[in-house]
Write a structure and sequence with these properties.
mainly alpha; 507 residues
Length: 507
Amino acid sequence: MAPIFKNVPLILYLMGVSALAMLVPMVHALAQNDHSVARAFGYAAILGLALAFVIALAMSGRGRRERSDLDNLVSLLLAFTVLPLFLAVPFHAGAETTSFLNAYFEMVSSLTTTGATLFDAPGRLADSLHLWRGLVGWLGGLLIWISAAAVLAPLNLGGFEVTASAEPGQSGAMLARFERASSGKRLTKVSRQLFPLYAGLTVGLWFLLVISGDRPLVAVMHAMATLATSGISPVGGMQGAQTGFGGEAVIFLFMLFALSRLTFSSDTMTTTRPGLNNDPEFRLGMVLVLGVPVLLMLRHFIAAYEIDEVANAGLALKAFWGGMFTVLSFLSTTGFESIDWNMARDWSGLNTPGMILMGLAVMGGGVATTAGGVKLLRVYVLYLNGRRELEKLVHPSSVGSTTVRNRRIRRSGAFIAWVFFMLFALSLALITVVLSMFGLDFEQSVVLAISALSTTGPLTRVALEQPVDLQNMQDAAKMVMAAAMVLGRLETLAIIALINPALWRDS
């Protein structure tokens, strides 16, 4: 049996894993005596496994050829665009009251860890369907986690291009250790290393949330949403949970993994010195997590002073915690809103600072994590370049750092980071204009574009005074939104690499 699966593309493995994953909501639906939903997932799992096996059997007769990095990159694109068609089949059959397009949109949103949902009304979906949404989001986070090290890193994409010596889309000498193994072996090795860690952290967070007071389904979905930064919840986020401050504190600690890969690994080469205190991504992330709530507190303090609420220290502490949790949540592109976030707003008498949340989501988390956005490493490199330019304005004859690495980060690395940022901004403008063509006003279009490109779906609920009604959008607007979510997850440079003739010739 093993030789049959040696030459199959990555997308076929992903289809088989997706089919096996359908057994989880099937078993849950059977335990809930929801036989119609159980049949939908059971039949889809059987058909998916049979189809994957037949295709693998048909491809086994081809001449043996190792999968290239281009093959895996194409498979990633297919995984986020074509695979949701298969994932939507049992969801559509189980929901029964929605169109297949809505089911496809939901699966794209879940798989890309965006978390924008058309089914936020309580009781609209059965618990097993909510579990499927969370499981797809969790698997999507695992996919991007593994592919970051096994697919994007060898091609100097996904943020690795900032510190690498080669051009984006090309292999470089700094990643020579990846070249000793084939693409398939590299994927297998990285999967074996990361999957136990990913699953273990999820189970640990699930256990802590259960003992904090959540029912098991809510706890496991919030655990999966935190590790995958999808923000998918069956109860509308932390407001519907039963854990209170204790649950938020536990989730806060686990969201720190999205700030830097160095919280669990040291293979991104973002720093030559070990330790989180020397990691620029983690330091910048903590500055934002602590600094933004302080600024918000000052803003809230001034407003509270006007309404004579300054003396209430308890409300002030709750407001600070609500700001710190929400800032980290949106910086990691998870999108959970603290239960004390509304208290901070009420304490100050000010509206929700949606622009700040959108800015945090755009900035995003760390390289090679499940977080989306521009990524903290790119922001840090642009900061270094800007600081050096200001130094040259004051002292034109000054000499910067003499290390080759720092010189490259400030020059070539900053140039590539700026190119990516401009591509991100152009994509944002284009998607905003296109969405406006389908009946959405400017503010809604901007929020939708940012939430899709940064993979932070909950922005559609909290960025504006009134949540964006995704359910009643035109079908064309939903497809544009889905395409934007795929673009935000894969990033523009990876899409450009797919059309690079040199990469095709090398394959």
